[in-house]
Design goal:
mainly alpha, globular
Length: 400
């Protein structure tokens, strides 16, 4: 019976989307182009280098080297091996869904157990500094100082989530205690060397696999970005967003937040960029209210990011449920941190900058805007070059 209900549900939703696409072709095309431009200009060129480097570092044993050195930190804090530090650092540097990508690769390499991989995924899917400072703070709000508040709450909240999730799965792991040796440069280098020797592929093949695997993942990410951009537009056009927004209005009233944020909040739960942009366009006397909602959306990741993560994890035995739970936890913690740190990290800094160093905010803002400008100019060229390279590599392998 359950399977029959699922079949009817999936079929109905698919038919509804198909009819909506036929009814609103112009609006659908516009939404598709908007999502494609985001992937084409920013997402692909900003994430591809991190993905390729991550594949190479895993293949050459550098991750194993870092794992030995960071074991004394990662095991007590997050109850995962030291190799998890690589996923944590890369996740913060490059943004979604790098944490899931690295966790799945480490699981495939059997450097993590399933429980450890699920713990790692729960707190390593961060928003990138480029997105927080460049897109949201400088781009949407035109206030670079807001980025400091959002970044501290976002990354600090994720670290607290990792500490909370260290207790996850302890019963399933059993009473086995994994006793690790102290950090040692000699042992770290020895394990790195052994890991490299186990990989018999020549350098050219390692590099080619890194490029192809990374591009495949990013093409999948692009598909989800376009899909959810279209879905959000369709929900608006058929009036479903307004109906669901009533439920969010009740939640916002309970939290003493303006009901005007209901639809932007709902949109942000689907796709972060669209929701954050809509929130920034609402005039408000208090920036704190906007910062609270955006912090929750960033922590929740958005259904678009969650779908990307689910797709990546589906190739392994890592379960999606712990990650989903941690997203609600992260959103809640980040929002609470925003309330607590709003005065010391934003209001007090604003006063200091106005009195003492009035050019700081302008300089910081211009740096991130310059980065976005560079991506917008040269991102499509970068994307084309590597898509062409991937096509050549795949062609050569299929003709051998």
């Amino acid at each position: 019976m359950k399977q029959i209900i699922q079949t009817l549900l999936f079929s109905s939703v698919t038919i509804f989307i198909t009819i909506s696409l036929i009814k609103f072709p112009d609006e659908t095309l516009e939404a598709s182009i908007r999502g494609l431009n985001l992937w084409w200009e920013v997402v692909f060129p900003s994430l591809l280098p991190f993905f390729i480097v991550a594949e190479l570092l895993i293949a050459f044993g550098v991750v194993k080297f870092l794992g030995v050195l960071f074991e004394p930190i990662m095991r007590p804090l997050f109850n995962i091996p030291g190799v998890g530090s690589f996923g944590w650092i890369m996740g913060m540097a490059s943004g979604y869904p790098t944490g899931a990508k690295i966790a799945s690769r480490l699981r495939e390499e059997k450097q993590l157990t399933r429980i450890e991989a699920e713990r790692l995924v729960s707190f390593t899917n961060n928003s990138s500094p480029l997105f927080i400072f460049g897109a949201i703070s400088a781009g949407f709000f035109h206030d670079a100082k807001l980025g400091i508040l959002l970044a501290v709450c976002h990354y600090g909240g994720n670290a607290l989530v990792g500490i909370c999730m260290r207790f996850y799965g302890r019963k399933e792991e059993g009473s086995k205690v994994d006793k690790k040796k102290n950090a040692s440069l000699k042992r770290a280098f020895s394990e790195m060397h052994e890991t490299r020797l186990k990989d018999n592929r020549p350098f050219g093949e390692v590099l080619g696999d890194a490029v192809i695997n990374s591009i495949k993942t990013l093409v999948m990410v692009g598909g989800f970005i376009v899909l959810f951009s279209v879905l959000i537009k369709l929900l608006f056009l058929v009036g479903i967003s307004s109906i669901i927004a009533v439920f969010f209005e009740v939640i916002l009233l309970i939290l003493s937040l303006p009901v005007d944020y209901a639809i932007p909040f709902f949109s942000g739960l689907f796709e972060i960029t669209i929701g954050a942009n809509m929130i920034s366009q609402i005039s408000s006397d208090s920036l704190l209210q906007q910062a609270i909602i955006i912090s929750f959306i960033l922590g929740f990741n958005g259904l678009s990011i969650q779908a990307q993560v689910a797709s990546i994890l589906a190739k392994t035995d890592i379960r999606f449920t712990p990650y989903l739970f941690s997203r609600f936890l992260h959103g809640t913690i980040a929002s609470l941190l925003t309330v607590i740190l709003y005065k010391p990290l934003y209001l007090d800094r604003q006063v200091l900058d106005m009195e003492d160093i009035p050019v700081n905010g302008v300089t910081s803002e211009s740096v991130w805007l310059d980065v976005f400008d560079i991506l917008n100019r040269f991102g499509p060229i970068f994307t084309l070059l590597f898509l062409g390279l991937a096509a050549i590599l795949l062609y050569r392998r299929t003709t051998k």
